[in-house]
Amino acid sequence: MFPLERESLCSTERKLGVSRAQFPSCDVQRAEVLSCFLALNFSNFFPSLWPRWKNWWVRGILTLAMITFFFIIIYLGPMVLMTIVMCVQIKCFHEIITIGYNVYHSYDLPWFRTLSWYFLLCVNYFFYGETVTDYFFTLVQREEPLRILSKYHRFISFALYLTGFCMFVLSLVKKHYRLQFYMFGWTHVTLLIVVTQSHLIIHNLFEGMIWFIVPISCVICNDIMAYMFGFFFGRTPLIKLSPKKTWEGFIGGFFATVLFGLLLSYVMSGYRCFTCPVEFNNDTNSFTVDCEPSELFQLQEYNIPLVLQSVVGWKTVRMYPFQIHSIALSTFASLIGPFGGFFASGFKRAFKIKDFANTIPGHGGIMDRFDCQYLMATFVNVYIASFIRGPNPSKLIQQFLTLRPDQQLHIFNTLKAHLVDKGMLGSLEDA
Question: Where are the bilayer-spanning segments (predicted)?
Answer without folding.
Answer: 56-88, 109-128, 155-173, 180-202, 208-234, 246-268, 322-344
